[in-house]
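Journal club side-thread
Mid-discussion, someone asked how the predicted structure for our own chain would compare to the paper's figures. Pasting it here so we can look after the session.
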Amino acid sequence: MKFHKNSFKKRWEFLGTFLSILSLFFACFLGNFSPVQADTPAIQGLGPGGLIHGADISIWQHQNGAKVDFAGMYASGIRFIYFKGSDSIPKYDKQVFSYLADDRNQAQANGIYTGIYHYATLPNTGENIKIILDALKQSRAVYNRIRYLGGLNNMDLPPVLDLESNCIAADSSGNCTARMNQKDVTTWTLTFLRNLSRLTNKTAILNTFPTFMQNNMKRDISLSQFPLWVAQYGASPEDSSRQPGALSVGCYVTSWTGSDCKTHWSIWQYTSCGIGNKHGLPNGRMDLNVFYGSNEDFQNLISNNWQSGINQTNFDFLPFDQLTTANIDSVTVSDTNHPVLITATILRPDNSPVLTGKVFFKNASSTNPSGTSTFTRNPNGDWVLKISGLTAGSYIGTLEYEDPSQVAQNASLPVSFNLLFAPKPPKKPAAPTPPYNYCDNQFKD
């Protein structure tokens, strides 16, 4: 700004600017601030589907002293990066010091927005007060890490909670021996996100995946007020019909799922098999992400003006305990060498298929086994139940529909069949198993 001494107006403009800078300096010094967002150039959507492209980086991208070429990363179209910034396990937390500060500075110097994520391990307790205290402690550790980096600036995205497991105890081989229940996982997560948001003045983000949200967290409108970074592989964002948190029939039931089965996400980690040397890494693979929204939405996320579609009055959440009607369409039975196949239709009040749940066979006789139930769903939403492992005889029981997520009411349908005996055919030699390739079913970019 050019200062004109003969202009009273300019003097006041200069004084206002000086006071703003001074205020920002003290906020930075205190480490708890939300910086004024200056006018910035539009962020180009150079990722798949024309979305803003991003990456996330941890110690794995720095193996054997490997360096990231952030200028090359920017040239490849990457516009934001999340670095692993902290870990609840001390030996892993120490690893971040080898790269975090330098990587963040270099990325921002090359025009790439940055953020940090905290990899969380849940505490081995079922006591509510201890769960809350642990969440407060871990969120405070993330805040302290941000202070170590010098505080947030206008190139920093909100901090992220990376929550991938509800395991709270394991044996010497690493096998999980105890897990936290849905209620306690939800309490811990909300406490962490609320406290970190309060400490940083930026709405913290949750990073997890659909099956974890459905199986290990309760549906809670409070959770939906935080942006969701969802990890789901196997599709490219270029295909608008393939979205994270989607199934071919029905949907994952989460706090971010609408009645249309769409998951309201902000960031999508669409592959962990990105081609490293295409995006500034010397070799190996990397995680790639896209941001859902415009340049304005991205800037609002940075400046803490983010608003979820879930906050809008027209957002329609998945229902609770919705009425169902059920019907068995067919029962196919032959002998003990073949499974019993039952096709059933289970509908919502608008005659559309139910969105979630499971079906199984329950034998009315407590002394006879119910066999092993597995199911698939046809493209039209019909359920196909396969019952195997039964002995020959007459069976009277029920086909049970249960919805653990409580979107729809459970249903029970009577079913009976006679299963004939057949001698077991000789076993065929097992076909060789092809070598497993982690990236076979992932989008490579």
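Post-session note: Residues 1-38, 309-313 have pLDDT under 50 and may be disordered.
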